[in-house]
Amino acid sequence: ADAHASTTMSNIKIDNVPEHQRGELLQEIEKMQMHNSSKTYNQMVEHCFNDCIKTFRSSTLSDQESKCVNSCAEKFIKLGRRAGYRYQEHQYSGAAAAAPKSS
Question: CA 21, CA 4: separation in Å to the nearest integer?
């Protein structure tokens, strides 16, 4: 088995996929991950813009707007990272519970 053999995506085990289709599946997974990353980034930009930008009197951000955007983006990224860790913990605990017990 290769390095991706134990990789799962939506409960699909890569080692259950015929070897000649693995490359295509991994490319599709990568495209999905890129799409999700772009979507998350766009949600962050929209959320922080709506929360922090209150006036359009200037072509540049005020100090208050800049601080707000930086803080908002940092919180959004930390929240996303934490959610990712929790998801991984959940996946690992589910995989461990489903694993056959050796006697």
Answer: 13
Tens digits of per-residue pLDDT, 50-77?
999 988 999 999 999 999 999 999 999 9
Q: Which two tokens stand for residue 72?
A: 């908002």
Tell me which DSSP letter residue 17 carries.
S
DSSP one-letter string for 38-75: HHHHHHHHHHHHHHH----SSSS--HHHHHHHHHHHHH
* 8 A C-beta contact, residue 47 and residue 79: no
pLDDT for position 12: 59
Q: What is the DSSP letter of 100?
A: P
Q: Which residues contact 40 (CB under 8 A, 6 or more apart)?
A: 80
**pLDDT tens string 14-52:** 777 788 888 888 898 899 999 999 999 999 999 999 999
What does the pLDDT read at residue 92?
A: 80
